[in-house]
Specification:
With about 525 residues, the protein is of the alpha+beta class. The chain has 14 helices and 22 strands. The chain has helices spanning about 10-15, 15-30, 95-105, 120-130, 145-150, 165-175, 195-205, 255-260, 280-290, 375-390, 400-405, 430-450, 490-495, 500-520; strands at about 5-10, 35-45, 55-60, 85-90, 110, 210-215, 220-225, 225-235, 240, 245, 265-270, 270-280, 305-310, 310-320, 325, 335-340, 350-355, 395-400, 420-425, 460-465, 470, 485-490.
Length: about 525
């Protein structure tokens, strides 16, 4: 039988198969010649000491052990052309994985996506980056694959209790992701590789008899006696079904407004908001690896930082080593930032959202908007940033040390943010309490990461779409909306997920609950 062992080796050994086999042979006290195969199960980097190590969990197969190199295969997806139909609003991870689960269970998904297919989105991303034109239905947030497709594809999750993380990762590998995501402590697919995976998922849905309709924005729900009967699209078409999964993402403000207008119960939800900080990747490498030069055996270094400032958490969010900052507005007249990395993470800069926890009480100036108060708070900051940066997709920017000293930066160097920057004192963008927390928080960050506090670092504002500002309540057992029978709020937009993996898990959960009812 193979032996499972844990070991700690240098980055060079971890990257070299023959050296790794020699090291493993010594640990299990056998000759290298009898080591048939070493399968890495988990891998993480330990950079706490000057001598950086790689932690490995491996399975060791010796000569005589049965080794079967099994490839990950997709589940059996049956033909559901004539099966019971379920509408899914949104083709992000929650919607797509809900669709796959429905097919696996024998139900027919009809996926309605307001944006374009994953390839068609590229023209609209170019338009916002180069021409400062925002397409309200097709952008970094909206379109096939959702926000993660073109704004990074990180698979970090703390949602182990929410469901089967490994199942989602294995499905992604089955659709073409690198098997490394099953091994790495912080798996990452990359914006350059995700589009093909998303396209392959869509083709599988269609091949099995499901439907995927693009440029089909839902503008109304058909409800009778508090039961969902279907939806109406912007073209005036009616699509009927008595089960609807609402998986529209955290930026679908028109859906939140529709729910509020129809008196369907929703509630304001706290979220986090701040800036996106960009440093030279070389500087982050030096700080995190305590070395002058990273070398070929280590990946670009990430960082994670959390501080408590005046009773609030301030923390790094969606950190992108070797990445770039992207414009993620979903409507004209607003500026929004986010970050992404290609699969190799080989860009010269590192960026991270640095955000502060907000509380419901912070939304009091917008109390007249009721459950949409947090959304209006969020919107007001994005619109202010747009005005301050010249009413374009340029972004308000400030050098980090200058920000902590309340000083307008005399110049802003070119950053990875393609539309450009405008030098602004960030205190003009944010409410006073938020500005003060960030100033104090960055100083604390600098104490924890020596070298982090530098004017080489450029802040871009705002980082405002960290999670949904609205929760769409649902019954904990049935997952149906607490008021509307047959409506299943799902994923990030409903307030029940926080990223690709947790959203996909939630999509599967909703599909399973629907199948329990329809197929019983």
């Amino acid at each position: 039988m193979p032996q499972e062992i844990q070991l700690q080796v240098s980055p060079e050994i971890a990257s070299n198969e023959s050296l790794l086999y020699e090291n493993v042979a010594q640990l299990v006290r056998v000759s290298t010649k009898v080591v048939q195969k070493v399968v890495v199960l988990k891998r993480s980097i330990d950079a706490r000491q000057k001598a950086i190590k790689v932690n490995l969990k491996v399975l060791v197969y010796l000569i005589g052990d049965q080794y079967d190199d099994q490839k990950i295969e997709l589940p059996h997806y049956q033909n559901v052309s004539n099966a019971h139909e379920v509408i899914i609003v949104g083709a992000g991870p929650a919607g797509l994985f809900a669709a796959l689960q429905l097919i696996e269970l024998g139900l027919k998904p009809i996926v309605l996506e307001r944006g374009k297919d994953v390839r068609g989105r590229r023209r609209d991303l170019k338009a916002i980056n180069v021409d400062h034109i925002v397409n309200e239905d097709s952008n970094y947030c909206f379109g096939e694959g959702g926000a993660g497709t073109y704004s990074d594809g990180k698979l970090y999750t703390r949602s182990k209790k929410r469901g089967d993380v490994d199942r989602i990762l294995q499905l992604l590998v089955g659709f073409g992701a690198t098997p490394d995501i099953l091994v790495e402590a912080h798996p990452h697919i990359g914006t350059n590789k995700l589009p093909q995976i998303i396209q392959d998922i869509r083709e599988k849905i269609i091949e099995c008899g499901g439907q995927v309709l693009f440029e089909t924005r839902v503008t109304d729900f058909i409800i009778k006696n508090n039961e969902i009967q279907g939806v109406i699209t912007q073209k005036g078409d009616t699509i009927s079904a008595n089960k609807v999964i609402l998986a529209t993402g955290h930026s679908a403000r028109d859906i939140f407004e529709l729910l509020d207008r129809k008196k369907i119960f929703i509630e304001a939800k706290p979220f986090a908001l701040g800036v996106r900080a960009e440093h030279p990747q070389e500087l982050i490498d030096k700080i995190q690896y305590s070395c002058d030069f990273r070398g070929e055996y280590l990946p670009p270094a990430p960082y994670s930082i959390v501080k408590q400032v005046n009773g609030r958490g301030m923390y790094s969010f969606c950190m992108c080593p070797g990445g770039v900052i992207a414009p993620c507005a979903t409507s004209p007249g607003e500026v929004v930032t986010n970050g992404w990395s290609p699969s190799k993470r080989d860009q010269a800069t590192a960026n991270s959202g640095i955000v502060v926890e907000l509380k419901l009480e912070d939304f009091k100036p917008f109390a007249k908007f009721g459950a949409l108060a947090g959304m209006e708070f969020q919107k007001s900051i994005e619109q202010k940033a747009w005005h301050l940066a010249g009413q374009t997709q340029k972004v308000p920017a400030q050098r980090l040390v200058d920000f902590t000293q309340n000083k307008v930066s005399a110049s802003i160097p070119k950053t990875s943010y393609v539309p450009g920057t405008t030098s602004v004192e960030m205190g003009q963008v944010f409410p006073g309490f938020l500005t003060q927390i960030m100033r104090e928080g960055f100083i604390e960050f600098g104490k924890s990461m020596r070298g982090y506090m530098t004017n080489e670092a450029i802040l871009h504002a705002p980082e405002s779409r960290t999670s949904s500002p609205v929760r769409i309540p649902r019954d904990a057992e049935s997952l149906e909306h607490i008021q509307i029978k047959g409506l299943y709020p799902c994923g990030e937009g409903a307030g029940f997920a926080g990223g690709i993996i947790s959203a996909a898990i939630d999509g599967e959960k909703c599909a399973l609950k629907i199948a329990e009812i329809v197929l019983k």
